[in-house]
């Protein structure tokens, strides 16, 4: 299984890099992991709605360029499905059985994900109605993907 995470923005904080490195290492025994960062567009403090939409579109274009045509795309979106860790594990397992060996998760920037990227997505997933920094969210996503593989392998995990 190939798991790709396309994320807007670079990780600057050492503690987040360390967590990402740890989960990347752990996932190595279950899948081939590829993390792709696309640059975030700077949003001025007084940006209008139109300015924000232009920024999202630019980020969206960069994201779409990184998604393989054959990939099953899961966009992390506030309007997505709320599922449990066990349901995510089942989703990944089902995709694998269906021959979908390339899964791409998309984490948008601070303004969210552009509409063309959401249209490209095969599935939309929401972790919570709360807002999280997209840098921290990458760690949370990696942890849940790792947990999903452990569940699917019948290995112990914290409930």
TrEMBL record:
<comment type="function">
    <text>Specifically methylates the pseudouridine at position 1915 (m3Psi1915) in 23S rRNA.</text>
</comment>
<comment type="subunit">
    <text>Homodimer.</text>
</comment>
<comment type="similarity">
    <text>Belongs to the RNA methyltransferase RlmH family.</text>
</comment>
<dbReference type="GO" id="GO:0005737">
    <property type="term" value="C:cytoplasm"/>
</dbReference>
<dbReference type="GO" id="GO:0070038">
    <property type="term" value="F:rRNA (pseudouridine-N3-)-methyltransferase activity"/>
</dbReference>
<feature type="binding site">
    <location>
        <begin position="127"/>
        <end position="132"/>
    </location>
    <ligand>
        <name>S-adenosyl-L-methionine</name>
    </ligand>
</feature>
<dbReference type="Pfam" id="PF02590">
    <property type="entry name" value="SPOUT_MTase"/>
</dbReference>
<keyword id="KW-0949">S-adenosyl-L-methionine</keyword>
<keyword id="KW-0489">Methyltransferase</keyword>
<keyword id="KW-0963">Cytoplasm</keyword>
<protein>
    <recommendedName>
        <fullName>Ribosomal RNA large subunit methyltransferase H</fullName>
        <ecNumber>2.1.1.177</ecNumber>
    </recommendedName>
</protein>
<feature type="binding site">
    <location>
        <position position="76"/>
    </location>
    <ligand>
        <name>S-adenosyl-L-methionine</name>
    </ligand>
</feature>
<dbReference type="InterPro" id="IPR029028">
    <property type="entry name" value="Alpha/beta_knot_MTases"/>
</dbReference>
<dbReference type="InterPro" id="IPR029026">
    <property type="entry name" value="tRNA_m1G_MTases_N"/>
</dbReference>
<dbReference type="InterPro" id="IPR003742">
    <property type="entry name" value="RlmH-like"/>
</dbReference>
<keyword id="KW-0808">Transferase</keyword>
<feature type="binding site">
    <location>
        <position position="108"/>
    </location>
    <ligand>
        <name>S-adenosyl-L-methionine</name>
    </ligand>
</feature>
<keyword id="KW-0698">rRNA processing</keyword>
């Amino acid at each position: 299984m190939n798991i790709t995470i396309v994320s807007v923005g670079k990780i600057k904080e050492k503690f987040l890099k360390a967590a990402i490195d740890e989960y990347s290492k752990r996932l190595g025994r279950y899948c081939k992991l590829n993390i792709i960062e696309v640059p975030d567009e700077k949003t001025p403090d007084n940006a209008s709605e139109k300015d924000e939409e232009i920024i999202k579109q630019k980020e969206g274009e960069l994201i779409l360029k990184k998604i393989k045509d054959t990939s099953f795309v899961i966009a992390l979106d506030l309007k997505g499905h709320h599922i449990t860790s066990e349901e995510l594990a089942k989703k990944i397992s089902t995709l694998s059985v269906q021959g979908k060996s390339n899964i791409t998760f998309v984490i948008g920037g601070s303004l969210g994900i552009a509409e063309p990227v959401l249209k490209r997505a095969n599935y939309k997933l929401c972790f919570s109605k709360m807002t999280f920094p997209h840098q921290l969210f990458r760690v949370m996503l990696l942890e849940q993907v790792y947990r999903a593989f452990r569940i699917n392998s019948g290995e112990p995990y914290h409930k």
